Amino acid sequence: MKIFHLPDLGEGLAEAEIREWYVKVGDVVTVDQPLVSMETAKAVVDVPSPYAGKIAQLFGKDNDIIQTNAPLVGFESDKIKQDEGSVVGKLEKSESKWDDGDVIIGQAKTKLTEVNKIMPAARVLAKEMNIDLALVVPTGPQGLITVGDVKKLLLERSSTSTAKHTETLHGVRRVMAQAMVQSSQEIVPVTIFEDADITSLPANVDLTVELLKAIVTAAKAEPALNAWFDGKTLERTLMDKINIGLAVDSKEGLFVPVIKEAEKCSHEELRKYIEDYKHAVANRSIAPSNMQGATITLSNFGMIAGRYATPIILPPTVAIIACGRTREAALCRKGKLIAGRIMPLSLTFDHRAVTGGEATRFLKEIIRYLEKE
Amino acid sequence: MPEITLVEAVTQALAYEMQNDPNVVVMGEDVGKDGGVFRATQGLLDKFGSQRVLDTPLAESMIGGMAVGMAIRGLKPVAEFQFMGFIYPAMDQIINHAARIRNRTRGRLTCPVVFRAPFGAGIHAPEHHSESTEALFAHIPGLRVVIPSSPRRAYGLLLAAIRDPDPVIFLEPSRLYRFAKQEVNDDGNALPLDVCFTLRTGQDVTLVTWGAMVKETLAAADKLNDEGVSAEVIDVATIKPLDIETILASVEKTGRCIIIHEAPLTGGVGADIVALVAERALFTLKAPPVRVTGFDTIVPYARMEKYYIPSEKKIMNAVHRLMEFT
């Protein structure tokens, strides 16, 4: 309820007496409609309504004395049309929500690659001569590519015969090359290997989905591996969500689409994710947004060949799990040899951000998950 | 948390600070009984009394001078000008006194005054009511120029402006006053001055804007996103002093920079940002930095106004042009 207080009806009058109410509870009034007749020491005056709306309460009966600034009339507040000023102009009005998104005070921190500094004239020349700036060796201050640098490469080009099969990488293959270089320059990788005994898993089990589930479980137990690390500021961010990048091979190069919030997905949903991404990669229809935001990566190269690997971490993540080809093996159980199945696992972690203990515990959780079933 | 409009956020910040700092005084034409031309000061007179909420005569020069005097003597006046176009009679007080007190007294005195005014076009108003002359103030040493663009930023930045020991020109985009609502926590937490706000992160182009143009810019960014162009949107918020580092960091990432302001092109704040980007980030640019602005003309009346204000389409066209540079 919005309350209208008795205004000063004269000059410094302390109170006034109600002579007659013109309205009753439930009445709908307009602005300036007389509400009540009040008698002051000086005169009898009508008090106009400051609001348009429905009367909810009257504070006083006829002949009651009301102090100045004491409550006089209560209005049903949601029925009050707000006084929005009346002077000039028309303000656009809506009940819609102001959507700022996630506001960052200051700078956005995601900076993925090193910035190439290129003199504008060099950029133009390179474009005209069809020179890939990534191949130009910069000699200017702070790594600046100058016109001279582009010219130098042009000169070299014209003096050497080009082999027929040389191609400048582009697209996904190029991104892969850059990411691998960045990774090898920045990251301090350590890889550990271990086998999971999957003898007891049914033969038709969906191993990729099981692995995704195992990663979710392990990431919850050991969050240090589901993290981002910024080598420049030495900032480590443990992630709440588990977004698993899934390495997918294609003719054009390596794609790593991201299964967002894998911890919320059922087995079926994970399988559908994988199928959708396989198709999307095959027809090159994958949205860039679906390849961003990975917090950890899975490479299931074993579907082709290979047992163990030293997979390369994609910055800013700090871990990648690779799964080799599962195979039959002779296993030793309680002193006896049995025929079983094993899945070879390789885990690379960034030792700048992750300790050996964290990594091995993480790997152990993965194996425990796979072997429990 | 209650959802409130930008103008209600202004009222809320004023009420909070008046409650917590007895030195805060609100003054201006019709700010008391009438609650201000846009009702930004509604209810303050009832709550805090006529000693602290002053209805002034219709004399802006006097409002400016009085506020400077009060501020020097220890009060924290928040003076409202009904529209930005009405500040000009007070320019002498603002430029020659408010902005210089600290320097003139070698730091012995400061002038903690906030000059508030609604600004910008788009409300079908008559002449003098649609100005965006923030560059005039940005040019004056000693003044801070702060422009919120959402209810939350209006609340947090106004609190910061009142608490700041130096004069702040606080410009409120009238076009956004009641445009939409947002949850605002009335907790008295100020937002930082002199820092940009990054509203969208992106890789392809940096859109730098402030005030009411944030609305069209965000709309353009969302449409561009559907096209596959990811735009970073920066709300400058404090025009002076300018947080150029945030803009440069973004431009280094995207290589493309567009400044969008409603104010006329010539001598606008956009020119300054382009200059700084050119001076400090030229070699990372993939395309020339450009401006999308109002025209070098008086803001037209209601019927033509929409052709004056840079449209979402105009912003998108500029982005498309820059995306041709690869």
Average the pLDDT over all residues of chain A and give the rounded result. 86
Please write the string of helix (H) and strand (E) elements of chain B.
Answer: EHEHEHEHHEHEHEEEEHEEHEHEHH
Provide a count of the helices of chain A: 6
Mean pLDDT of chain B: 96
As for the number of domains of chain B, it is 2
Which stretches of chain B of 5+ consecutive residues score pLDDT under 50? none
Q: Separation of termini of chain A? A: 62 Å
Query: Which structural class do you get from the secondary structure elements of chain A?
Result: alpha+beta
Protein architecture, described:
The complex is a heterodimer of chains A (373) and B (326). With 373 residues, chain A is an alpha+beta fold. Chain A has 3 domains: 2-79, RNA polymerase II/Efflux pump adaptor protein, barrel-sandwich hybrid domain (OB fold (Dihydrolipoamide Acetyltransferase, E2P)); 112-159, E3-binding domain (Dihydrolipoamide Transferase, Irregular); 175-372, Chloramphenicol Acetyltransferase. Chain A has 6 helices and 22 strands. In chain A, the strands form 6 sheets. In chain A, strands 12, 15, 18, 19, 20, 21 and 22 form a 7-stranded mixed beta sheet that branches. A 4-stranded antiparallel beta sheet of chain A has the order 1-8-6-3, with no helix packed on it. A 4-stranded antiparallel beta sheet of chain A has the order 5-4-2-7, with no helix packed on it. In chain A, helix 1 (120-128) packs parallel to helix 2. Chain A starts with a strand and ends with a helix. The mean pLDDT of chain A is 86. Chain B is α/β, with parallel strands linked by helices and 326 residues long. Chain B folds into 2 domains: 3-183, Thiamin diphosphate (ThDP)-binding fold, Pyr/PP domains (Rossmann fold, 3-Layer(aba) Sandwich); 197-323, Rossmann fold (3-Layer(aba) Sandwich), CATH 3.40.50. Chain B contains 12 helices and 14 strands. In chain B, strand 2, helix 2 (44-48) and strand 3 form a beta-alpha-beta unit. In chain B, helix 1 runs parallel beside helix 7 (151-163), helix 8 crosses helix 12 (312-323) and helix 9 crosses helix 10 (269-281). Chain B is globular. Chain B starts with a strand and ends with a helix. The mean pLDDT of chain B is 96. Classes of the chains: A alpha+beta (373), B alpha/beta (326). Chain A binds chain B through residues 5, 82-85, 87-101, 103-108, 110-111, 115-120, 123, 144, 287-288, and chain B through 3, 34-39, 42, 46, 82, 122-126, 129, 150-152, 174-175, 177-182, 191-192, 195-201, 218, 228, 230, 232, 243, 245-246, 249-250, 252-253, 282-286.
